[in-house]
């Protein structure tokens, strides 16, 4: 009788431990996707209160970035799940991957103190990384050149031209006004620093 009880307890324990992962029960880890924006806090009329600003304001995310964001969920779509690691490539694939590798960007300035972002690697890949990073930030992309490495973006209330230029195996990203003169160094430094900080690892 004692062995029967022990066996039942062990079976129930094993099922309870394996149940969550094996049967993909909803653990509410994706409930944040159903969150709704709330109106700002309003004080009753006649109340005097100190002005305040939120310490952690919610960022405005471009719908294009949301549309292309990776889906971190299981096959059933009811639990948060990281993607499985990719299989190792053979040496031939590694050689071709190394040839198209894009280096980490570097914040530099030219002789006139204009901020630049220096990126080593193939120009097409460097622009792909730059534009993908830009799309994940809060800047509105007005247009992108079809036959070139440039995009018109909105920063504050003004439009600017973000352009990538190639010299050999090195590329530089710079921010220009629409008349193709360099943007204000403070504005350019802010945009390029955000691209640098959010660059894919």
Question: Any key phrases for this structure?
Answer:
six-stranded antiparallel sheet; 6 strands; single chain; 201 residues; alpha+beta
User: What portion of residues belong to β-strands?
Assistant: 15-25%
Biggest sheet architecture: 6 strands, antiparallel
What is the distance, rounded to the nearest whole angstrom, between the alpha carbons of the first and last residues? 59 Å
How are helices and strands ordered from N to C? HHHEEHEEEEH
**In order across it, which strands form the biggest sheet?**
1-2-6-5-4-3
Residue share in helix: 25-40%
Report Rg: 25 Å
Average pLDDT metric: 80
Write down how many β-strands occur, each being a DSSP E stretch of 2 or more residues.
6
Model regions low in confidence, pLDDT < 50 over at least 5 residues: 94-99
* Approximate shape: flat
Count, helices: 5
Overall structural class, as computed from helix and strand content, comes to alpha+beta
């Amino acid at each position: 009788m004692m062995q029967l009880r022990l066996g039942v307890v062990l079976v129930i324990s094993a099922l309870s431990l394996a149940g969550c992962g094996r049967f993909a029960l909803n653990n509410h880890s994706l409930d944040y996707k159903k969150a709704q924006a709330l109106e700002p806090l309003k004080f009753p009329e006649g109340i005097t209160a100190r002005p305040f600003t939120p310490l952690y304001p919610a960022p405005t995310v471009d719908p294009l970035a949301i549309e292309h964001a990776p889906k971190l969920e299981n096959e059933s779509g009811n639990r948060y799940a990281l993607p499985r690691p990719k299989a190792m490539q053979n040496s031939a694939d590694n050689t071709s991957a190394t040839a198209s590798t894009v280096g980490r960007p570097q914040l530099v300035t030219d002789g006139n103190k204009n901020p630049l972002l220096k990126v080593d690697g193939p120009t097409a890949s460097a622009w792909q990384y730059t534009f993908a990073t830009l799309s994940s930030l809060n800047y509105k992309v007005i247009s992108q050149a079809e036959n070139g490495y440039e995009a018109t973006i909105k920063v504050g209330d003004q439009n600017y031209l973000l352009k990538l230029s190639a010299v050999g195996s090195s590329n530089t990203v710079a921010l220009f006004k629409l008349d193709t003169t360099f943007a204000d160094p403070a504005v350019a430094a802010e945009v390029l620093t955000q691209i640098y900080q959010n660059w894919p690892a």
